Amino acid sequence: MNIRVPSELVELAEIFNKNGSKLYIVGGFIRNQILGIPDSYNTDIDICSSTCPGDIVKMLENSSFAVNYLNEELGVVEIKRNLRVEHATFRKEKYNLAGVHIPNNIEFIKDLKTDAKRRDFRCNAIYYDILGQEIVDPLDGVIDTEKRILRTTLSPEEVFKNDAERILRMVRLASTLAFNVEPKTYEAAKLNAYKLQYISSTRKREEFSQIVLADTKYDFLSDIKRAHARGVNMLADLDALKYILPALDAIKDSNIIEDRGKFLFEHVMNVFALSAPEVRLSALLHDAGKAKTFLDYRSFNGSSEFSDIIIEKNLGQEGLCFPKKIVERVKRVVRGLDFNKSGLETPNSIKKFIVDNNEDIWLIVALKNAVEQDKSRLKHKIAYSAYKLQKMQDKMKKQEAPMTVGDLKIKGDKLLEMYPSLKENTVGVLLKEMLYKCAFKPSLNTFENLSELSRKIIVRKKSFYLE
Predict the structure, then answer these.
(1) Digit-coded pLDDT (tens) for 159-178
(2) How many Cβ atoms from other residues are within 10 Å of residue 424's Cβ?
């Protein structure tokens, strides 16, 4: 089997060889080449040998390669020149606390087969001897890769008991690569899913984010179209959602039937499957308030009032610790879903909404359409409220209506110069009020018109704006 190896790694392997050590590539880089994944998608390279980190530093100190410690205890260093690779010394691992991801006892070893057994799945335990130009496959990982199946390196119970994050990795690999999971491996994952509570929020967020985007990583693979939905449904079946996205788990366990006779969880997952990558977190949580109000009050009334709180708890610092910018965007998109559902909003009301949600309009439109497509069962159905939003935004752009305060032909410092008694903390309010007026009537957006408009607004609300 021909494995393509960057010439830089051949040079590195020759240095290792001169110092009495064989250098191997291991893991996803080899697996992906066996699968026929193009090199442009295959950029992460892990290498390994029996050489310890300190010896690598000495070995390469007079070479063109730079070495940085990444985790000295685990024997992991970064080696880079033009390429950046991570080298891990062969090791054995022991875990005192089950499921915690980080081993507490490490022993560096010389034996490749023992190193292979501490890895997660057999398809990731395929080694390639760079100078020998041969695959070393102690656990039949090549066969598993060719059959597109995930099996653990040791007994599934032991692998997941030691490191519960591997359950998420299993789901991620099965989704992104369109692999099946061996039944014994799947059942062991299900039995050990409760140990995900011991995994850090950061690790869970990183794996979950990749599952949510599973269909985008290798989008040319067959059977990959709804890989993201397959991944989240797998998490649901494993009973793992309660440790990742409790609000979605609550919808699943509630067995709520919505107004069209469909289970609410089925509806949410259909919307998620239909959604563009950028709107998928919003899709998963767009009905989170319904489960709360139905379980507490046996009604969907007021469900939107709980949405912000639930999103914050699931995605914010108490949950998966997504950046605040992402959490706030999800809140805005979910709130926007209910805007103009009846189709009765006035043109000015729609313009004001567009100004207030300028950067998120396309996301709100995308979510509205995904919801409508599930409800109508028509693939390309456009929600009426989404159509009205998009049409109005297009019209405003054509008229060159200002969408943000920065688009106004007058600035805050000029207003302070024009009105010395203007309270500095009201400048933003004044600009926003003028922005709405210009959105309604774009021709107002000239310096002269805004100067006069600002005077009228200030005169009308003197006590608010002036010292």
Answers:
(1) 999 899 999 999 999 999 99
(2) 10
Q: What is the dihedral of CA 10, 11, 16, 18, to 10 degrees?
A: 120
What's the total number of domains in the chain?
Answer: 4
What range defines the domain where residue 378 resides? 275-398
User: Are 107 and 168 part of one and the same domain?
Assistant: no
Q: In what order do the strands lie in the sheet with 127-129?
A: 66-71, 76-80, 84-89, 46-49, 24-26, 127-129, 134-136
139 and 3 in one domain? yes
Is residue 403 within 8 Å of 354, Cβ to Cβ? yes
CA–CA separation, 104 and 331 (whole Å): 40
Torsion sign across C-alpha atoms 26, 28, 31, 32 = negative
Q: Which residues pair with 52 in a beta bridge?
A: none
CB 287 within 8 A of CB 268: yes
Closest by Cα among 311, 315, 360, 359 to 336? 360
**Do 159 and 83 fall into the same domain?**
no
The tally of CA atoms less than 13 A away on the side-chain side of residue 383 is 24
Statement to judge: residues 168 and 72 lie in one domain: no
Which tokens belong to 320? 């998966």
| Token pair for 463 | 């006590």
For the entire predicted model, the pTM comes to 0.91
In a shared domain, residues 140 and 1: yes
Residue 459 carries which side chain, given as an amino acid letter? V
Q: Nearest-CA neighbor of 75 among 117, 109, 116, 108?
A: 108
Q: Taking a C-beta distance cutoff of 8 angstroms, is the pair 120, 159 a contact?
A: yes
Quick: pLDDT tens for 128-169. 999 999 999 999 999 999 999 999 999 999 999 989 999 999
- Beta strand 66-71 with 76-80 is antiparallel
| Together in a domain, 133 and 4 | yes
